[in-house]
Amino acid sequence: MARRFPEGSPAVNAPGRPVRVAVIGGLTRVARDWERAGGAIGAVVEHHDGRTAGARAEALAAIVRRADIVVAILVPNSHGAVAIARRAAQSHHRVFRLVKHLRPSALGEVIAGALGDDSAPPAIAAA
């Protein structure tokens, strides 16, 4: 899979560096499954539960800054978290993808789509 990162992404000048993926929202109990799925394809996955009260909004923005690809899950999630993640991704030149649901088995498809692999099927998982 050809890796195409936006200008300014930390991975632009780092050949061989694993892709860092921020998963925002979704069920916290699935976070380890996303991490394992990412590890199986050579990606590093970091999860944020989407709660933005207090200092959590800054923690969300920090996760986005560390990532190459940001995947925000709508169900269940705070639309405030989606807005914060989207703004942080835009301001730090990160690839942003919005999905309704995300099964761990579909993480590779989302990453492939974000990296420009046109052969990847749609990333939105069925309910």
Overview in brief:
By secondary structure, this protein is of the alpha/beta class. It has helices at 31-40, 56-66, 79-91, 107-114; strands spanning 19-24, 43-48, 69-73, 95-99.
What would your notes on this structure say?
The chain is α/β, with parallel strands linked by helices. It has one domain: Rossmann fold, CATH 3.40.50. It is 33% helix and 17% strand. The chain contains 4 helices and 4 strands. The protein has helices spanning 31-40, 56-66, 79-91, 107-114, and strands at 19-24, 43-48, 69-73, 95-99. The chain has a 4-stranded parallel sheet, with helices on both faces. Helix 3 (79-91) links the parallel strand 3 (69-73) and strand 4. Helix 2 crosses helix 3 (79-91). The longest helix is centred in the C-terminal third of the chain and has 13 residues, at 79-91. It is globular and about 35 Å long.
Question: Any descriptors?
Answer:
4 helices; 127 residues; single chain; four-stranded parallel β-sheet; 17% strand; Rossmann fold; disordered C terminus; alpha/beta
